[in-house]
Amino acid sequence: MQELTNYNQELINRISLIVEKLFQSNSLYLVKLNKQEMIEILVDLFGKFSPEEFMAITDNQLTDRIDSILVLEAISGTLNDLTPEEIKIFDEAVEGR
What is the C-alpha to C-alpha distance for residues 91 and 33, in angstroms, rounded to an integer? Predict the structure, then answer.
């Protein structure tokens, strides 16, 4: 049980540090995302890895993976923020009109 607690704390610490750095370097994340919510989602996601698998991921690899996830989360609702006129322009551009 102690090993599971240590692993969970390592997971939280490692992910939190990376998320903190990424939020500091990307203003889009600050505007679009809730940092604590993202940490919780990422801890849940990476918690599915075994301790050995997670520890085998280098910090650079983990940063790249987390950054990719944050980008997707940040832009996923972008179309929802558009006005009807902007949506029409977007649709026309996609259709090639």
Answer: 26
What is the phi/psi pair of residue 90, to 5°? -60, -50
Q: Which amino acid is at 16?
A: S
Question: What is the SS3 assignment for 37?
Answer: helix
Q: Which residue's structure tokens are 């987390």?
A: 66
Per-residue pLDDT of the chain (97 residues; tens, 9 = 90+): 677 678 899 999 999 999 999 999 999 999 989 999 999 999 999 999 999 999 999 999 999 999 999 999 998 867 777 888 988 887 888 887 5
Largest CA distance in the chain: 62
- Residue count (the chain): 97
